[in-house]
Amino acid sequence: MCAHHHHTFTIDIHTHILPEHLPDFKKKFGYGGFIFLEHHAPCRARMMQDGRFFREIEDNCWDANTRLRECGVHHVDVQVLSTVPVMFSYWAKPEHTLYISKFLNDHIAEVVHRYPKRFIGLGTVPLQDTELAISELERCKSIGLAGVEIGTHVNDLNLDAPQLFPFFEACQDLGMAVFVHPWDMMGKEKMPKYWLPWLVGMPAESSLAICSLIFGGVFERLPNLRVAVAHGGGSFAATFGRIAHGFDVRPDLCAIDNPYHPSRYLGRFWVDSLVHDINMLDFIIRMFGADRVALGTDYPFPLGELTPGELIHQYTDDEELKAKLLHGAALQWLNIDKSLFLAD
């Protein structure tokens, strides 16, 4: 399939990268919870958390050349790089999370600097401390990152929390794109089996984040804030009828921070295309608009789209529509011009 279709310039907004070697943060900071990489075989490592196995990764998670080779096979021209959400570390002491964030952000900036036509970088920030988060956001911009990746919540705060608002305001003022990614899944203690935190909790986390931004008035108060949400917005689109009806029948509960109907914000934010289902892709394109749905694959992880762009190519042969989904929406979200990647 892939070899035959006319190649459309392609940006993948949802890919994760780690440095090959992480410091031993537990030793450095004197307490646990941090990820450590155990390189136990060539081109492979175990992500370990306090001696517990978290996930096996391969060198495509850290090696830019391996990524570029696989992008060549997959016809992906540009990858947007962000850290693996388990690295957010919002639960740690803010100055330690700042240290980790700087380490990760410098690595991503360095990869982008080496291959500016192939990679766009997003930073991570210590969101549990708004001032520190804003100062690292400013530094991210200064080292050439295009935005930040944040979690769907910050410890006990949802994204409508008043203390987070100045951070979103700074993102708008600095023109930094925001990528919201589920992490630390709600109810995970009640879902010990079947990988359910990833299958049930993650989609709910994305919907929680969108609902918080809508009902909390963040989108309303920051009209130029550019937000994209992972996994097609999770369960938001599928449950939007319920959300809207809830607002209609109980405005006394839903409209306390923002008086406007949730439908006002459809098309106000971006989602990636990672829904693994052609009917759902059609549904989110109808709901959000084709210029608000951008290719995202979760490369290099197995829950992602294993052949980037396959679903979009199956969905349509319309070149104009395909162009929106494969790069147009992404460029709008990032506020970047396509010519930057095509020039010599």
UniProtKB/TrEMBL annotation:
Protein name in the entry: 2-amino-3-carboxymuconate-6-semialdehyde decarboxylase
Any one GO CC term of the record: cytosol
Domain Amidohydrolase-related: 11-335
EC number annotated for this UniProt entry: 4.1.1.45
InterPro entries with a match to the protein in the record: ACMSD (IPR032465), Amidohydro-rel (IPR006680), Metal_Hydrolase (IPR032466)
GO molecular function, one term: aminocarboxymuconate-semialdehyde decarboxylase activity
Top-rank taxon: Bacteria
Keywords for this protein: Decarboxylase, Hydrolase, Lyase, Metal-binding, Zinc
Main EC class the enzyme belongs to: lyase
GO biological process terms on file: secondary metabolic process
Family (UniProt): Belongs to the metallo-dependent hydrolases superfamily. ACMSD family.
Recorded metabolic or biological pathway in which this protein acts: Secondary metabolite metabolism; quinolate metabolism
Cross-referenced Gene3D superfamilies: Metal-dependent hydrolases
